[in-house]
């Protein structure tokens, strides 16, 4: 038994030293854990800490001003504009300038003074149902406090102020309407990135990489040949998820299929560029898979799939600008739920094309240096 324990201890010591003495292994074991812990702590939060909203106050009365001041005083509602027309209000929601809009009727104060029920319309951007629900609950709490103060001050018997809520793009605030369209982009990116990252690494591991040197193809042609199949596979997978979303879960699609697939092509091109860069840098398939999974975790956390980007710290919001999944999810949600066209979703397409324009030439340069 003593010899067994000594042998086992020696083997355990050898395995630990082989891992811990290697600098790259230590970096992979420690670095991603620290990074992911910080990302989960800051990015994976449903707390409503920054809810931008716009106001259409047709009353312009002291009472409406008091209600809005109470909203502004909470610390998590941020008024980004006071609009003068319904068209401006709609534009603020459509362009995601505001998470919600508040419309106060011209007869608001006179209704309250006359003892009548005074409705205030709350319009929510429900493309992300989680934040929409949180915003609606927070507004309801503010209104309840406003009614309680007024009852205590003026002796009003019944709560005179009520909220009329309208959720745009997701009328019933169903979480499935939020997740399923986003998965059209997310799941296709996961497979595309992994397949592309393994492409060149597989060639090296199987010993066929050197055979590419004797072919008449240039490094750029090889890169293009390895880029197109993952894009086609990604589009096929996106089509499967789209079919399940539309016909199995009965989530109606408002937008255009050509616009959706144009956006997906740009989205997958950015993913292929990142995957090819990883593949060119990796010496074997194990490295390629490890780099891919280490990269995918922060990309998913910073994508806005589960938690909105607006609730993240500003430094992380800046970091999301280099994340293609963020723009892909936003583009698909807007086309699918909102019916947005290319003239509307171009702010999502431009970053995707810029990422592709940066990563594909970088991958080509790495190909040339690896092949030389």
Task: Walk me through the structure.
The chain is an alpha/beta fold. The chain has two domains: 51-168, abc type-2 transporter like fold (3-Layer(aba) Sandwich), CATH 3.40.1710; 175-371, no CATH class. It contains 13 helices and five strands. A five-stranded mixed sheet has the order 2-1-3-4-5, with helices on both faces. Strand 1, helix 3 and strand 2 form a beta-alpha-beta unit. The termini are far apart. The mean pLDDT is 80.
Instruction: Provide the gyration radius in Å.
Output: 27 Å
What is the total number of structural domains?
Answer: 2
Number of helices: 13
Amino- and carboxy-terminal Cα gap: 56 Å
Mean pLDDT: 80
**Regions with little confidence, pLDDT below 50 for 5+ residues:** none
Estimated structural class: alpha/beta
Tell me about the largest β-sheet: 5 strands, mixed
Give the DSSP E fraction (strand runs of 2 or more residues).
5-15%
Number of strands: 5
SSE order in H/E notation? HHEHEHEHEHEHHHHHHH
Main-sheet strand order equals 2-1-3-4-5
**Could you say which overall geometry the principal axes of the C-alpha atoms support?**
elongated
**Share in helix:** 55-70%
Task: Break the fold down into its secondary structure elements and pairings.
Blueprint: H1 2-20, H2 23-43, E1 51-57, H3 62-72, E2 77-82, H4 86-94, E3 100-104, H5 108-113, E4 118-125, H6 129-154, E5 161-168, H7 175-206, H8 219-248, H9 257-281, H10 285-301, H11 314-319, H12 324-338, H13 342-371
Parallel strand pairs: 1-2, 1-3, 4-5
Antiparallel strand pairs: 3-4
